[in-house]
Amino acid sequence: MIRIILADDHPIVREGLHTLLETQPDFEVIAECANGDEALQTAARLKPDMLLLDLEMPGKDGVETMRQLSQMPQRPRVIVFTAFDDDDRIIHALQAGADGYLLKEAPRDEIFKSIRITMEGGSMLQPLVASKLLRHVGQQKATPRLANAIPQVEELTERELEVLRLLAQGMPNKEIASHLIISERTAKFHVSSIMSKLGATNRTEAVALAAQRGLINLNE
């Protein structure tokens, strides 16, 4: 069972999303929050597996909420669930630690898939979000974390490039291991090595940096 907290300042959005998620036998919505402060307090108290987080909320916004969540001993995985698709918001959210980024217009099956993939350790970006991210880094308009990334990167091994391509497909470590016929522990080691070499703080940023450097093509 995936225990989920919803954080959005619009009650009708929370109610609709709550009803939608409860149709899935492996999802349990354990709380609803109307702002970032409430989300932080509730997450600290209930220790959810997943937080679906809006970006624009009164008080602490989604980005600041994620930054403070990262200081928790047991940080929940976070999927940004928002109506905003501009480049800067996407970049800031990923840098703050978002494990995924979904637009509120996303189909229900895509929402379900993203939650499950993210909980398994993967990372999923909608095609529209991925294309905006690529255009942003390609034009060197990213925020300092991406635009000023380490200019010289230690070369990835052939196996790491294989893992990277699967990582770009949103595969969690278990699926990467199965696909490459290696142990899950080995897959995790390769993912950590890739992130270290690219100077990334999470899997999504690693994919973005790899695309920026031409190591993978997210449009394929």
From TrEMBL:
Residue ranges of every copy of the HTH luxR-type domain listed in the record: 149-214
Entry GO MF terms: DNA binding
UniProt GO BP: phosphorelay signal transduction system; regulation of DNA-templated transcription
Residues that bear 4-aspartylphosphate: D54
Ranges where the Response regulatory domain occurs: 3-119
Keywords attached to this entry: DNA-binding, Phosphoprotein
CDD domains named in the record: LuxR_C_like, REC_NarL-like
KW Phosphoprotein (keyword) present: yes
Name used for this protein in its record: DNA-binding response regulator
Biological source species: Dictyobacter aurantiacus
